[in-house]
Each structure stands twice: as structure tokens, then as C-alpha cells.
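tool_call: predict_structure(chain=1)
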Amino acid sequence: RPIGTTGRGIGTTYSQKSERDGIRLADLDWEEKMNDVDQADKDFLAPYMDRLLSMRIDIAAKMWEIRNENILFEGAQGAMLDIDSGTYPYVSSGASGSYGASSGSGIGPRNLDKIYGVFKAYETRVGNGPMPTEFNADSEGELCDYVRKTGNEFGVTTGRARRCGYLDLVALRYACHVNSIDSLVLTHLDVYDDMEEIEACVAYDIDGELVTDFPTSIPALNKAKPVLQKFAGWKQSIKALSKYSQLPKNAKAYVDFIEDYTGTKVGIVSVGPDRNQTFNREKIWKK
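tool_result:
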């Protein structure tokens, strides 16, 4: 089954971890452990030992030491690529949900003060797997090319063109629920600046049935057709604006609808890549 990963060996590494057959950074200078390692693996590791050991720390102890500081964790991949709550088997090999911040950093989950969910004003995906809102290559190819070019939607690691589609509010609400998201971060809103109207998915049509809860079944997702709702565009550039209150009313209406549908506040809105193009609607570090 072609999953469409980056092909960098991460899956193999996680497989070794699950089989309890991997070599941890903590074990590199533990002679008893190293004596259990094949000579070929020792020879492979030898050139990197000094560099690896110089970067090693006791992460649990370090996190406890700096527990009173402001600490920002950044999750890898995306919510729908999580090994447990994503579109399995078309997922990453590890935890890309919010709980990964705890399991990968040596702190308990109750020590996470706030969880932000970052999403784009439209949908993207790299690799294979279900994507109900993907633009149709025949009827919506021009729209796809526009969004991809305007949003620079090409993979950072692989350079592959990302699959693009309408914002999937069904999937976004599901991501908010399973990740305990406190506040959303809306990015790339400026991509819609030149459009007369925009559309977002508010339900799926699966064999004639209207579905608003995200399905766990891949066959069901493969059959899902997006039910779209239209929104008026704003037909002006918002890149030069300096605060959220300056956004045109139609842009704010789009944000309001996302909040109502997901039941989650949009606390940050971005209209460009620069720091001054990010509008904080709430205090980020307030517990």
C-alpha cells in the first residue's frame, strides 16, 4: 500500500522502537547495551558518537528545571496524520496530535497550559490518503493552481506540490475535539483576497447520507463528497493591515463562522509570513 511518506526512514525507526530493538541516545555510552549491538551498527554509529553525546540531556530533569519559564512546543506533521487519531494507515509513524508535546518532552499532560491548533484558510495534504475536500483536477484545476501558487504549497522536505482543497470544517472540528484545542490559529487568510466568493465544507455526503461527524473508516472517507457553503469574498488586499479590527467584514464573517461551527475561538489570525502580519486576539501566555 503506497502511503506517500517522505521516505526518510522514520517508519523503520519507529518500528524498531515498538519492537524494543532500537538504540536510544541514552544508551550510546552504556557498554552493556552496546555489547548487544551488531558490529555493523557500532561501525555505523562510531563517526557520530561525539556529536550525538554532546547534544544529550536528561529531558525530564531539564523541563522540570525550566518549568516556570514560557515554553512553546511545536508539533510536527498535522492532526490528521497522527498514528492514533489520524486517517490510518495514511499517517505519520509517531504522535502528531497535541499529546505528543507531553509524551515527547518529559512533562505530564496536565502541565500543558494551553493548546493551539494551527490551520490554513483552505485544506492541504502531502502524500496519499483520503481528502474529501480536494479540488477536482478537471473542474477545479484552475482554482487549485491559484491556491497552490498563491499559498506556496510545496513540501518543505520533499518539494512536492501539496494537494489542495476547500477548508474541511468537519475534519477541523474533529481535530479540535481529539486534541483538546483551546484556541485556533488561522493562517493564509490573505490567499482569498482576489476571490469573489469562497467555499468551505460543512458536511459530507456519503452514499446519500449527510454526515457531520468525521468518519474513522477510510472507505467511508474515500466515498465522501463535500457539502459546501458559500461565503462572500472581500476583494481587497489584507496583507498591509496591522490589526484584526481592520479586516473587512466579509473576512470577519468567515472567521466567525469557523468559530461557531467548531465551537472553538480563533485566537490568532495571520495574513502573511511576517511577524507584523499576525494578529493576536488574546494573550498568548495567559494561563
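agent: The longest strand covers residues 197-206. Proceeding to next step.
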